[in-house]
Every structure is written in C-alpha cells, then in structure tokens.
Structure to design on (453 residues):
C-alpha cells in the first residue's frame, strides 16, 4: 500500500524532526531531561503509528466481528509498546522528564491535526484573496 | 498476609490501572473497528480509491485512539509511580481515578470512530474533496476527545492531590464519587459528539459546497453535547475540594458517593440525546442549507430539553452534597 507508506513516512518524519529540533534547543538550554523525554516519547509514537499502518490491510475485507477482534489485539499490543517510554519517564526522572514524554507520545496526532488545519487555513486565506 | 495501608494503596493502584486501561480500550477498539468496517464498504464501492480510503482510515484511527492513550498514561502512572502519601484516602482516590479514566475514554473512543468511518464512505463518493473531508473528520474527532481530556484531568488530580489531611470518613466516598461523576458523564458526551461529527462528514461528502454551515452546526451541536460532561466535571471538583466534616455514619459517605453516581449516570442519556439532535440538524443542513438557521434553532431547543434530565441529576447531586 503505497499511500499508507507515504502517509506514515510523512507524519512520522515530521513528528521526529519537530521533536529533535525542539529537543535539541531544550538540551542546549540545559534542560536535557525535557529534550530527551520529548524525543523518546515521539520515537515510540512514530513506531506506534507505523505498526498501526501495518495492521490496516488485515482489518479490511474481514467480517465486522473479526475487524473488532483485530482492532482490539492491535491496540493492546501497541499500548504495551507505548507504556515503555512512560515507565522510563517514571523510573528515570533525571534522564527523561515524564511530562515531555507524554507530550511526545501525542506528537504524531498533533502533527496530523496541525498539517490539516494549516491546509484549511491557507485555503480559506487564498479564497479571500 | 500483610494487611497494612501501603498494601491497600498498591491494591487500589493496580485495580485502578486495570479499570482505566481495560475500560479505556473498549471505546477505542469499537471506534477503530467501526472505521475499518465502513472502509470495507467504501473500498467495495470504489476499489480504485482503496489507497486513499486506507490513508483516511489510518489518519482517522490515529486520532480516534487518543482517548485510550490517555487511559494508558493514567494506568502506567498508577502502576509505576511511587505514591508519597500512603493513606486509605489515597487508596480510594486511586480507585476513583481508575473509574474516571476508564469510563471517560469509552465514549470518546466510540465517538471519534464515527467521523472516521463516514469520511471513508464520503471519500469513495466524492474523491475530489478528500482533503476537506479529512479536515472535517479531524476537527470532529478532536472535539470528541474533550470528555476524555476532562476525565484525564480529574484522574490526574485524584492521583496527585494530597488528601491525607482530610478525614477518612466521608472523604473516601467523595473521591470515588468524583471519579464516577466525570467518568460516567463523559460516556454520553463522547458518543454524542461523534454522532454530530459523523453526520457532518456524510453531509460534506453529499454537498461539498455546504461545508461551512455544516461544520458550524456540527461544532455548535458538539459544544452543547459536551455540557453533561461539564456538569460531571463540576460535581467532581466540588467533591474533591469541599472540606467535609468528619462523620463515621454510613449515610454521610453514601450521600457523597451517590452525588457522583447521580450526575455520572444522569449525564449519559443527555449526552447521547444531544448528539442525536445535532446529528439530525447537521444531516439536514447539508441537504437544505437555505434552512440552516431554522434547523440550528430546532437543534438548540431540542438539546435544551434533552439536557434537562442532566440538570435534574446535577441538582440532586448538589442537594446530596450541601443539604442532606
């Protein structure tokens, strides 16, 4: 599925680049745990999104019951993965700040929302001109 | 078997974590499953667009599962965070946090899946407006997350606020009631918001030129559908921050627990009902945009009447807290 791969590549790379840039400035400013936390959370957020796309073709073309079962299995396994950075944030607060880890976990969603809202705003602006 | 306070705090934390994640996964799985099921329909309708439909489904599902990621964050915090104040009130508040986040994620998970599914069908119908449709879906899905965010805020407060100076009786009931109030009330609002957002995607796909009024009606309808969860939030705040005098009578504790249950359960129906009113209005604005003003008025009047039962529930909760 070319479209899925392109979508994953676009949002995962955008999320990681955003996190790395913000994280870099935070580390330079002496807030190392904040920067590392953000990058760690975003990394796992991107892996979660990539895995989500891999499961997609298995969901479509099945009965509704099977689709629900595959969805539930996919969610549970990906959430075990997403729990890893939060546990690291709790266990090693000096290295990874918990709050920025949590923000990082939502980075892909934030990037998706920002991307579409930006397009909608630009479209409205162009129409006015 | 060691039966000290620390053990009870651990038992409550583990139970709360299980409740938060277990209940939270229900909503997201149903919502994502619904989106996938509608994608089946969309692909069978227009097989050439399967790639675009998959893309829309992926983006929709990513937003739809945010509610259960909130639940995951709360569950992991409860499992691994070392609570500084090990008291029996803390045990009760952790249990309340688990109820709050678990129930609170159900509605938003289901609700967020509805626009995702409708966007997939709409894309098969109108491939040329894919971007506009996805934007509409994302806005609708994001608003559906609001009740889950309220639940997460209350759950975090229950985990981190130090209640140790308050008397155990009846504060244990107040903190569990606080969790139930926001958590249960969020179910209806999350689902209701999803009905409006789903109808909006359907409407935009049918009549792309009505996207403006359809989105406005959707946002107004969703805002009103969130009101029962705001009532739940209000009662939770009162239960968490009011200083209750010590009372070992069972009635005092039962009253505070019942206050949370009243607004919690009382908010489910109005949230769903308000969403149905918004869904109808949004659907018909798309088909008859010249009557958008009248349809919005009917929607708001219908929602106000549907809201009244949530207000009764809140009044009873306030009586239980302040009068009884």
């Amino acid at each position: 599925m070319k479209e899925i791969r392109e979508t994953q590549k676009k949002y995962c790379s955008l999320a990681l680049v955003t996190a790395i840039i913000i994280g870099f400035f935070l580390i330079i400013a002496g807030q190392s745990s904040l920067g590392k936390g953000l990058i760690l959370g975003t990394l796992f957020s991107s892996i979660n999104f990539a895995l989500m796309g891999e499961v997609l073709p298995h969901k479509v073309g099945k009965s509704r019951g099977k689709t629900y079962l595959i969805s539930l299995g996919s969610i549970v396994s990906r959430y075990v993965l997403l729990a890893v950075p939060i546990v690291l944030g709790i266990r090693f607060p000096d290295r990874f700040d918990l709050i920025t880890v949590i923000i990082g976990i939502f980075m892909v969603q934030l990037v998706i929302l920002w991307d579409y809202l930006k397009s909608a705003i630009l479209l409205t602006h162009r129409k006015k001109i | 078997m060691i039966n000290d306070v620390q053990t009870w705090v651990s038992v409550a934390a583990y139970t709360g974590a299980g409740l938060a994640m277990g209940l939270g996964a229900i909503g997201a799985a149903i919502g994502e499953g619904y989106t996938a099921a509608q994608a089946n329909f969309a692909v069978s309708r227009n097989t050439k667009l399967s790639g675009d439909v998959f893309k829309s489904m992926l983006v929709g599902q990513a937003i739809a599962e945010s509610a259960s990621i909130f639940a995951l964050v709360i569950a992991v915090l409860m499992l691994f965070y070392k609570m500084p104040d090990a008291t029996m009130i803390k045990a009760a508040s952790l249990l309340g946090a688990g109820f709050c986040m678990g129930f609170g994620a159900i509605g938003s998970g289901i609700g967020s899946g509805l626009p995702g599914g409708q966007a997939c069908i709409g894309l098969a119908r109108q491939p040329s407006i894919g971007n506009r449709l996805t934007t509409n879906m994302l806005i609708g899905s994001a608003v559906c997350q609001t009740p889950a965010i309220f639940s997460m805020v209350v759950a975090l407060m229950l985990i981190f606020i130090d209640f140790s100076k308050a008397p155990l009786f009846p504060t244990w009931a107040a903190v569990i009631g606080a969790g139930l109030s926001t958590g249960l009330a969020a179910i209806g609002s999350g689902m209701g918001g999803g009905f409006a957002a789903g109808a909006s995607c359907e409407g935009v796909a049918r009549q792309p030129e009505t996207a403006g009024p359809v989105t406005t009606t959707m946002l107004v309808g969703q805002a009103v559908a969130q009101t029962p969860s705001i009532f739940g939030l209000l009662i939770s705040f009162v239960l968490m921050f009011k200083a209750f005098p010590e009372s070992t009578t069972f009635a005092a504790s039962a009253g505070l627990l019942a206050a949370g249950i009243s607004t919690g359960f009382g908010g489910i129906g109005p949230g769903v009902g308000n969403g149905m009113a918004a869904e109808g209005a949004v659907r018909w604005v798309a088909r008859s945009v010249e009557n958008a003003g009248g349809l919005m008025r009917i929607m708001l009047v219908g929602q106000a009447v549907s809201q009244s039962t949530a207000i009764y529930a809140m009044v009873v909760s306030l009586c239980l807290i302040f009068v009884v």
About this structure: Chain B has a mean pLDDT of 93. Residues 188 and 271 of chain B are 4 Å apart (CA to CA).
